[in-house]
Specification:
With 226 residues, the chain is α/β, with parallel strands linked by helices. It folds into 2 domains: 116 residues, Response regulator (Rossmann fold, 3-Layer(aba) Sandwich); 100 residues, Arc Repressor Mutant, subunit A, CATH 1.10.10.10. The protein contains 8 helices and 12 strands. The strands form 3 sheets. The chain has a 5-stranded parallel sheet, sandwiched between helices. β8 and β9 form a beta hairpin. α2 runs parallel beside α3 and α6 crosses α8. The radius of gyration is 20 Å and the shape is elongated.
Length: 226
């Protein structure tokens, strides 16, 4: 299980890495808000442990950014004891909040509790449209009962779309999720991959009914077809 740990206190960051690694977690560390966001985007963690008072982007801004494209559990650890700040963090999308200083056992228990809430493979849906079935648990796609081979990038784009049926997903969101925050202007890549997905999944790729372009904005997955 992969965890991003973000804290600008180097001593705290090192201690958390040692503790979590010793308990079998794969730990990615970040010393500021920008590094935390980059690690969350590029590392695809199962959990984010996040301090609020970081330079650059503060923890609240990181929560806002992550919640724009991901439901990954977020555990806030902070020296701030003001109840209003705790409520603000939870309202913005944090899943739990631990106040520093904290006991190691408490932190590990909070992490285990968040992990138990995560969906298992049995909870993952199978999304069907036309003659296509997308199995999100096994990451397999079939069309007319025959397997469809997708590249890792094609899969990540398709997964993002099918997990958000009938919702507009902006180009910037897809580019950030798939290629990282430094590629938000690379819309040509995105058009190319969408064209490839349509060739593999649409009955008439030139006139798609399910993977729809919203001109000037982004893309939308329409299960029932337009």
């Amino acid at each position: 299980m992969k965890i991003v740990v973000a804290d600008d206190d180097r001593q705290m960051l090192g201690a958390l890495r040692i503790i979590l690694t010793a308990h079998g977690y794969d730990v990615l560390v970040a010393a500021d808000g920008r590094q935390a966001l980059d690690a969350a985007i590029e590392g695809h963690p199962d959990l984010v442990v996040l301090d609020l008072g970081m330079p650059g982007l503060d923890g609240l801004a990181v929560i806002d950014a992550i919640r724009g494209w991901s439901t990954v559990p977020i555990l806030v650890i902070s020296g701030r004891t003001d109840s209003a700040e705790k409520v603000d963090a939870l309202d913005r999308g944090a899943d739990d909040y631990v106040t520093k200083p904290f006991a190691t056992d408490e932190l590990l228990a909070r992490i285990r509790a968040l992990v138990r809430r995560m969906p298992t493979a049995d909870d993952e849906p199978r999304v069907a449209f036309a003659d296509v079935i997308v199995d999100l648990a096994t990451r397999r796609v079939t069309r007319a009962d025959s397997p469809v081979r997708l590249t890792p990038t094609e899969w990540r784009i398709l997964e993002l779309l099918v997990r958000n049926p009938d919702r507009l997903i902006t180009r910037e969101t897809i580019l950030t999720e798939v290629w990282g925050p430094h590629h938000t202007s690379d819309s040509g890549y995105l058009r190319l991959y969408l064209a490839q997905l349509r060739k593999k999944l649409e009955a008439d790729p030139a006139h798609p009914r399910h993977l729809i372009t919203e001109a000037g904005m982004g893309y939308r997955f329409v299960p029932q077809g337009e």
